[in-house]
Write a structure and sequence with these properties.
The protein has 384 residues and is an alpha/beta fold. Helix content is 53%, strand content 11%. The strands form three sheets. The chain has a five-stranded parallel sheet with strand order 2-3-6-1-7. The protein has a two-stranded antiparallel sheet with strand order 4-5. The N terminus is likely disordered.
Length: 384
């Protein structure tokens, strides 16, 4: 078969042969945004990371199907399947948070992004894990105002709409590696106990909510949880395990395999790192994101939707100035970004540093055109 569309057409034909599946079933499935289409939309926003894009596309498709089954009043026992919570691992700047933000935009589901380090065990100063659900309601309200006539709805309809959005929403917990279980159990305020609290949310628990437009309980069983973390030194544990299990195996690994060693991570490695077996067990989809190469950073800077370069050009356009970047200028910006080793996150700070003199002077300048070159950026920085 030539492409994913051909594959899907073949699947539909097989459905048509099955008398237990009606035309209505096929129509409903076809109306949903299919995984390969979700992934295609992500391609416009996220450079590379194809495996990660596939995994999150499948995970959210799973939730869209489950929501569909509920609102078709199907017997959910007959259509039961578990959600695929996701673990994204990779260094800062590789695009974990950006991927999940983009996913939420593509499928129009509310997203709450939370930092794991802000949560503490019950009874200590810090956020309770149930605050994630409150944040998801805030996100759902924002989404409802953008895509529905939310302000015109009755209070009852507002409540029902928010509930339906949150029930199958997405919660992204960043820096999950920072709440690894501590060796000192007496001081494990933000470690094992917080992981256990997240485990309850993942498995499904009733959470009491007091929101502007919703007062009551909501069960968390259908919410998709995505965890992200850099997991420093996890690679050392993987290398040690592989060396022990297969004598001489690591000597046979080439440089590329060593660079992508996180792809060999297993549940055992995470448990040894300090993550609860139950939490990892409820997160079956584990994927390592690759470090961004020079070419990938160029694409991030210049090609994706709302790229940083397009934003800078738009900013200058607001001054009444048509700005362009030469190829050598783009290459210089990428080289400077690679030096600070922050991935895509470093692009903005580099541009702030290099372009600050232009952003300061150009609004008052008597010009309407500027071509930004490497020599110009170097001279501006030298004269700072």
């Amino acid at each position: 078969m030539n492409n994913a569309e051909d594959f899907w057409d073949a699947i539909i034909k097989e459905y048509e042969k099955d008398s237990t599946i009606s035309d209505k079933d096929i129509e409903i499935i076809g109306d949903l945004m299919l995984p390969h289409l979700i992934c295609s939309e992500l391609d416009k926003k996220v450079v590379g990371q194809f495996k990660a894009k596939q995994i999150v596309s499948i995970a959210v498709w799973n939730r869209l199907l489950a929501r569909n089954n509920k609102y078709l009043n199907r017997n959910l026992d007959d259509y039961y399947f578990e959600k695929n919570n996701v673990m994204l691992i990779g260094n800062s700047g590789c695009g974990k948070t950006h991927l999940i933000k983009s996913l939420s935009e593509v499928v129009s589901l509310p997203l709450a992004i939370q930092d794991a380090t802000t949560f503490t065990s019950a009874g200590y100063v810090g956020k309770d894990v149930q605050d994630c659900i409150k944040a998801l309601f805030d996100s759902a309200e924002k989404l409802a105002k953008e895509q529905y006539d939310f302000d015109l709805l009755s209070v009852d309809l507002k409540e029902k709409l928010l509930y339906s959005l949150v029930e199958y929403g997405i919660i992204y917990i960043d820096e999950i590696d920072k709440i690894r279980a501590s060796q000192d159990k007496s001081k494990d305020v933000g470690g094992k106990a917080v992981q256990e609290a997240f485990l309850k949310l993942i498995e499904g628990t009733d959470v009491k909510i007091r929101h502007k437009w919703y007062r009551g309980e909501i069960n968390t069983a259908n919410i998709l949880f995505v965890f992200g973390g850099a997991f420093p030194e996890l690679d050392k544990g993987i290398l040690q395990r592989l060396n022990v299990s297969k004598v001489g195996f690591m000597r046979e690994l080439d440089t590329v395999d060593r660079e992508n060693i996180l792809e060999h991570a297993t549940t055992k490695d995470f448990i040894m790192y300090g993550m609860l077996p139950e939490l990892i067990g409820r997160t079956p989809a584990i994927v390592a994101l690759h470090e961004l190469t020079k070419g990938m950073l160029v694409d991030v800077f210049t090609k994706v939707d709302k790229s940083l370069m397009s934003q800078i050009v738009n900013e200058f356009k607001s001054y009444g100035i048509a700005a362009t970047f030469s190829e050598c200028a783009v290459e210089y910006i990428i080289e400077e970004t690679l030096k600070i080793k922050l991935g895509a996150r470093g692009l903005r700070s580099v541009c702030q540093r290099l372009l600050r003199p232009l952003q300061f002077a150009l609004p008052a300048a008597n010009t309407n055109v500027i071509n930004i070159t490497k020599d110009m950026l170097i001279k501006l920085e030298e004269n700072e």
